[in-house]
Amino acid sequence: MASHYVFEPEFCNPAAGWEKGQVEKNVQDARNRLWQVMPVFTGLAELNQWLEDRCMALWAETKHRELPGTIADVWEAEKPTLMALPPAFDGFVEQSKRVSPTCLITFERNRYSVPASFANRPVSLHVYPERLVVVAEGQTVCTHDRVIERSHHKPGKVIYDWRHYLALAIVLGPMADNGSLQRKPGALRNGAPFTEMPEAFRHLQDHMLRKEGGDREMVDILSLVLHHDEDAVLCAVELALEAGVPTKTHILNLLHRLLDRKQTNLPEVDPPEALALETTPEANVDRYDDLRQAGEKRHAS
What we know:
Helix content: 25-40%
Number of domains: 3
Shape: elongated
Oligomer: single chain
Number of strands: 9
C-alpha cells in the first residue's frame, strides 16, 4: 500500500504509546465528536456512508489551528497542489481453497457455492471486509456477500447461488454425471440451492411441477439466464404468469420479443365467431366428368 500511494511509513515501537501522543489525542477527540450519539445502522455500507458525511460536516465546522478558515476551506485550497490519486488500492487477504464435490468452499465456519465447473479444483479466495471473491485461472469466478457470525455455538450457514448448479446441466449436456439437472430434473423439487431463486421463478416452478415433464421444461427455462440477460428472462416469466400462460413456448416467445425490443403489451384481439357453413358439400364423383369436358372438347385425364 505504501508503494501504491507513494508514502513512507514510520512505525512506533511496540507498547510505546508516548511516541504518537498527538495522534492518540486526535483520535480521542474525533471519537468524542463523532460517537457521542450512537446511531443504529442496518449494515456496514450504511455506517461507512454516515461516517463519511459526518466527517465532512465536522470539517466544515471546525476551525483550522494555524491557517484562517475551517479545515474544509484549507483542504479546498490545498487540493490543486496535491498529486493525483492512483486507482484505489485493492486490499484483501488471500487464501487458497479447494472446492468440494458439492461445489462449496468453507470460510469462517460458513460455506459458499462456486460454479460447478470448478468442483474438486483449487481456487483462490480474496477476503474483503464485506465480500468474498473467488478467483481462478486469472479471472473472477464468483462473488458472495461475506456472512459474519460472531457466535461459535450456532451452526455455520450455507450460501448458495442456484446459477452455479444450473450450469452443470448446460455444460455437460445429456451425457452429464449423476449430479446433473438433466439427468435428475427432480432435483428442482428438493434441491437446497433452488430455494434461493427469485419469486417469479418459484411461482413458475409451482405451475411447471404439476404437469408431466414440467421438471425438464423448468430446467430449460432457467438455463436461459446463462445465455441472456437475467432481468429479461425474469420479465418474460412475470409476463407469462400475468397472462395465465406459464408455458415454455410462451415464455420463449415473450423473451424474443423483449430482446428484439418488440411491443409485448399489445391489445387483446377479439376474434369473430366461427363461420357457419350454409351449403354442405356432397361426395359426388360424377362432377369430375364435367371438369374433363368443356365446350365439347375432351381434356386429357
